[in-house]
């Protein structure tokens, strides 16, 4: 995957988490046409950049907690 594509996807993942619209890893992996493992690595990258992205089992989606 090209660097530009990767960073655009990271930005999109972050935007979804901030808007609380990231419902499942499977959903986003299908949208990006990549594996669920890739999405997990991308979420880990965002966490390493300081974003506190967690899965909320009550709301059944990923959210970014400030």
Structural notes for this entry:
The chain has one domain: Orthogonal Bundle (Arc Repressor Mutant, subunit A), CATH 1.10.10.10. Helices cover 56% and strands 12% of the residues. It has helices at residues 3-18, 25-32, 36-48, and strands at residues 53-56, 61-64. Helix 2 (25-32) crosses helix 3.
Total count of domains: 1
Largest sheet, strands/sense/barrel: 2 strands, antiparallel
Give the averaged pLDDT, no decimals.
Answer: 92
Q: Report the CATH topology name.
A: Arc Repressor Mutant, subunit A
CATH H level, superfamily name: Winged helix-like DNA-binding domain superfamily/Winged helix DNA-binding domain
Rg on CA atoms, Å: 11 Å
SSE run: HHHEE
Share of β-strand residues? 5-15%
**What structural class do the secondary elements suggest?**
alpha+beta
* Strand order, largest beta sheet: 1-2
3D shape: globular
| CATH architecture assignment name | Orthogonal Bundle
Share of residues in helices: 55-70%
How far apart the termini lie comes to 30 Å
Spans where pLDDT lies below 50 across 5 or more residues: none
- Could you name the CATH class? Mainly Alpha
Count all strands and give the number.
2
Notable features of this structure?
single chain, 66 residues, alpha+beta, Arc Repressor Mutant, subunit A, two-stranded antiparallel sheet, 3 helices, 12% strand, globular
């Amino acid at each position: 995957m090209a660097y530009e594509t990767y960073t655009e996807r990271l930005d999109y993942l972050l935007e979804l988490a901030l808007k609380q619209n990231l419902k499942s890893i499977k959903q986003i992996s299908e949208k990006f046409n990549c594996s669920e493992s890739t999405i997990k690595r991308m979420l880990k990258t965002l966490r390493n950049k300081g974003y506190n992205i967690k899965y909320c089992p009550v709301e059944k989606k990923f959210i970014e907690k400030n």
